[in-house]
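Researcher: I've been going back and forth with a colleague about how Cupin domain-containing protein might be arranged in three dimensions. Neither of us has a model we trust, so I'd like an independent prediction. The organism is Algoriphagus aquimarinus, in case that matters for your notes. Sequence below.
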Amino acid sequence: MKTQRRIDYLVKSLHLLPHPEGGFYRETYRSSETLNTEYGSRNLATSIYFLLTSADVSRFHRIKSDELWFFHEGSALTIHLLNDTGHQELRLGLPYENEEQLPYQLVKANTIFGSTIDSQDSYALVSCVVSPGFDFNDFELFDKETLAKKYPEAIQIISRLT
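Model: Here is an independent structure prediction for Cupin domain-containing protein. You can compare it with whatever you and your colleague have in mind.
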């Protein structure tokens, strides 16, 4: 009950909205400077608050920019990556709770990824900085069938995050 009150408070006080991939978000920064990329003009950087609960997942998706993740509060979060080496995991959280997790992680451009909260009845509040800046034209959600063909060894996590 206490956790749900904290989640409700964060959603309300930070003015978070449902994110298409799962969880809640709000853009907090968009640089005024832009640059030309092969995909068009993009802001130099953008930043969001992102809140994910253990009752939800961040579905597998891909963007065309690097994404830096910074942990603020709650339980550790696992970022699941699908790439040429298969399924990999990055742990985002406080390092004194688990030496394999860090308060900062990087997801490289064009990597398929999603995330989970692995503790029951919990949440994680993070910030994500995208450079070049995020644009929904660069956002691609994946379905189970597409990913299962390319990564059959990862079918369990694919089933969970699609």
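Researcher: What would you highlight for our discussion?
Model: I'd start with this: The first strand starts at residue 17 and ends at 18. After that, consider the following. The chain has one domain: 2-160.
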